[in-house]
Amino acid sequence: EVQLVESGGVVVQPGGSLRLSCAASGFTFDDYAMHWVRQAPGKGLEWVSLISWDGGSTYYADSVKGRFTISRDNSKNSLYLQMNSLRAEDTALYYCAKDSSGGGWYATIDYWGQGTLVTVSS
Amino acid sequence: QSALTQPASVSGSPGQSITISCTGTSSDVGSYNLVSWYQQHPGKAPKLMIYEVSKRPSGVSNRFSGSKSGNTASLTISGLQAEDEADYYCCSYAGSSILYVFGTGTKVTVL
Question: Comparing C-alpha atoms, which of A57, A112, A107, A65 is closest to residue B4?
């Protein structure tokens, strides 16, 4: 059974930094691309970032480019999101999600975690 | 990159069919047969319902079907059931720069 468990969400001040983690199990982690997708309270889904199976390719939404960094450690079956220069509009539930391919080529996210809540507030 | 446009709400009676539209542009929906649909119940994580416009993952009811015409993709739910009441989101590949864009979301109500 595929399991994705996010952690690291807290309340942080504007301008602060935070690192989210996602522990994956139940599948061969280093065969698949991974995503971060977020959902602001009461709002829709927003794609944030993608990393390829080997970490060699990374992609970001314009709204986080230059502030967020996605990474992975295949030896630990873990995905990360380093979030810097946080803004109030980054407040959201952040989902770790598995792609159906190694490179994210088919716009298909087949498994999602339960999310970790990030609140940016003074 | 703007979000894909979906109706805010769609409703139907049990047993009826409903269709949710997802309108993009020639840079996303219109250019690639790479549209997926997700169901999200309140307080739950999204669930993949349709991928690559019209393919259904194993375990998803055949009451769910997808299609695309031009810049608009559609999700049809036939034989509407109470358990189908949820939010639905489309997602499209949008090119090598933006990569992915989600729809605005549609709340489905079973009357």
Answer: A107
Tally Cβ neighbours within 10 Å of residue B97.
9
For residue B44, the one-letter residue type is K
The mean pLDDT value for A93-106 works out to 90
Which B residues, 18 through 37, put their C-beta within 8 Å of a C-beta on chain A?
32, 34-36
DSSP letter (8 states) at residue B79:
S
| Amino acid identity, position B14 | P
- Determine contact: A112 vs chain B, CB below 8 A: yes
Q: Give the three-state DSSP class for B19.
A: strand
φ, ψ for residue A95 (rounded to 5)?
-100, 135
* Range A37-46 average pLDDT: 97
**Chain B nearest CA to A108, separation (Å):** 6
For B91, half-sphere exposure in the C-beta direction (CA atoms, 13 angstrom radius) is 30
* Average confidence score pLDDT of chain A: 96
Chain A residue with Cα closest to B44: A114
Residue carrying the six token digits 């979906």: B6
Dihedral in degrees, nearest 10, Cα atoms B107, A105, A112, B29: 0
Half-sphere exposure at residue A7, Cβ-oriented, CA atoms within 13 angstroms: 5
Is pLDDT of B64 > 80?
Answer: yes
